[in-house]
């Protein structure tokens, strides 16, 4: 009976995703590749490939390899500011990708239409109500609302506030997935009861056996506490920094130092504004790869959400999903 309550609350989400349970594993650059994505989908969740800065050729290979391993639907996450966005959409079309998740700000003109044209469902991140309503008018199929507890690039508002603001107003119009800070089924149950159709988790899945993240990266997660997952700080108002939540290490301190150094060069007239902003951006290019793939968790970026303290061991994806749904069912039965 309780099982059916969870399934009922998730029904719009599972119908949209074509999965058994409406638990999405949010795309994580370098982590969400063929192995983790297929494992999530095959275990009844919904995996999403992180395209990140991949070229169209690399994405083509990643989708092809994921298709060989996955027996269930999965999605592809594209970053809106990628210079080859339209080509990446074409690659998704070539592979008949069923779901495209657009992250990283307003989708450029024509991109939503292009995704519709390839026959894929389109899911967008809505960090505020106004944007959520705009997306509904544009005909997107679902929305993700992600709070600042999440790992990676974040907005300024917490998940609990976004959920209270957005779910009562729009959850009857299209499926909404809640993300950020979720690591237990009780939280999943509460967002479903507020009107969400599903959830998206990232941090909780990083230490899955099937995740290719370096052993050091996983150990840092297992050791980490909520308070270690801090946001990057912007030092100079002229040099914009999109906040990133990651475990505190030498790399986070070095980033602050780098911003001060670049600001000084700017003050001295030794570099132009464009060059200064580029230097800031380049600092992080590759930092996540350094930590996830090379295992340099001191100097690289160990992006992690505040829920990192609830990641206690390496487990299989199937066990994680089973634990989450079990906890959600128990909570709903109470
Ligand atoms: C290591 C890491 C890398 C991430 N990379 C991306 C990314 O490339 N694109 C994206 O849309 N979200 C990215 N995210 C966010 C996740 O997709 C997901 O929304 C988030 O992790 C959910 O919050 P949680 O970490 O509290 O579970 C990343 C998160 C982490 C932890």
Kindly describe this structure.
The structure is a single chain. The protein has 334 residues and is of the alpha/beta class. It has two domains: 2-213 and 313-333, Aldolase class I (TIM Barrel); 225-303, no CATH class. It is 45% helix and 13% strand. The chain has 13 helices and eleven strands. The strands form two sheets. Strands 1-2-3-4-5-6-8-9 form an eight-stranded parallel beta barrel, surrounded by seven helices. Strands 7-11-10 form a three-stranded antiparallel sheet, with no helix packed on it. Helix 2 (34-42) packs parallel to helix 3 (56-69), helix 4 (85-94) packs parallel to helix 5 (111-117) and helix 10 (250-267) packs antiparallel against helix 11 (273-284). The radius of gyration is 19 Å and the shape is globular. The relative contact order is 0.14. The mean pLDDT is 95. The site of flavin mononucleotide has 27 residues, from strand 9.
Class from secondary-structure proportions: alpha/beta
Q: Globular, elongated, flat, extended or rod-shaped: what is the shape?
A: globular
Task: Please name the fourth-level CATH homologous superfamily of the largest domain.
Answer: Aldolase class I
How many domains? 2
Strand order of the largest sheet: 1-2-3-4-5-6-8-9
Total beta strand runs = 11
Please state roughly what percent of the residues sit in beta strands, choosing from under 5%, 5-15%, 15-25%, 25-35%, 35-45% or over 45%.
5-15%
Largest sheet: 8 strands, parallel, barrel
List segments where confidence is low: pLDDT < 50 over at least 5 consecutive residues: none
Radius of gyration computed on alpha carbons = 19 Å
Rounded mean pLDDT score: 95
Which CATH top level class of the largest domain fits? Answer: Alpha Beta
Pattern of helices and strands? HEHEHEHEHEHEEHEHEHEEHHHH
CATH architectural type of the largest domain: Alpha-Beta Barrel
Count of helical regions: 13
Tell me roughly what share of residues is in helical segments.
40-55%
Could you give the distance between the termini?
12 Å
CATH topology of the largest domain: TIM Barrel
> Ligands bound here?
flavin mononucleotide
């Amino acid at each position: 009976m309780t099982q059916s309550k969870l399934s009922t609350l998730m029904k719009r989400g599972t119908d949209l995703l074509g999965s058994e349970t409406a638990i999405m594993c949010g795309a994580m650059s370098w982590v969400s590749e063929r192995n983790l994505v297929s494992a999530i989908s095959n275990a009844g969740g919904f995996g999403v490939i992180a395209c990140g800065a991949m070229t169209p050729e690399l994405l083509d290979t990643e989708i092809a390899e994921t298709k060989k391993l996955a027996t269930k639907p999965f999605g592809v996450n594209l970053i809106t500011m990628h210079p080859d966005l339209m080509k990446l959409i074409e690659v998704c079309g070539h592979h008949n990708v069923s779901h495209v998740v657009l992250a990283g700000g307003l989708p450029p003109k024509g991109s939503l239409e292009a995704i519709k044209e390839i026959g894929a469902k389109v899911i967008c991140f809505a960090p505020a109500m106004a944007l959520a309503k705009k997306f509904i008018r544009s005909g997107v199929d679902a929305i993700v609302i992600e709070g600042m507890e999440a790992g990676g690039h974040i907005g300024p508002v917490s998940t609990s506030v976004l959920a209270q603001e957005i779910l009562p107003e729009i959850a009857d119009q299209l499926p909404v997935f809640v993300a950020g800070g979720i690591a237990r089924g009780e939280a999943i149950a509460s967002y479903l009861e507020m009107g969400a159709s599903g959830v998206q988790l990232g941090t909780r899945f990083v230490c899955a056996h099937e995740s290719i993240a370096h052993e050091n990266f996983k150990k840092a997660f297992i050791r980490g506490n909520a308070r270690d997952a801090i946001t990057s700080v912007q030092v100079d108002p002229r040099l914009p920094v999109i906040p990133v939540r990651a475990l505190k290490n030498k790399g986070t301190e070095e980033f602050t130092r780098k911003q001060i150094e670049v600001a000084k060069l700017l003050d001295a007239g030794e570099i132009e504004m464009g060059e200064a902003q580029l230097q800031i951006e380049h600092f992080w290019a590759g930092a996540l790869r350094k930590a996830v793939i090379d295992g340099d968790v001191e100097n690289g970026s160990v992006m992690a959400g505040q829920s990192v303290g609830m990641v206690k061991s390496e487990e299989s994806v199937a066990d994680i999903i089973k634990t989450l749904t079990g906890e959600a069912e128990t909570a709903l039965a109470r």
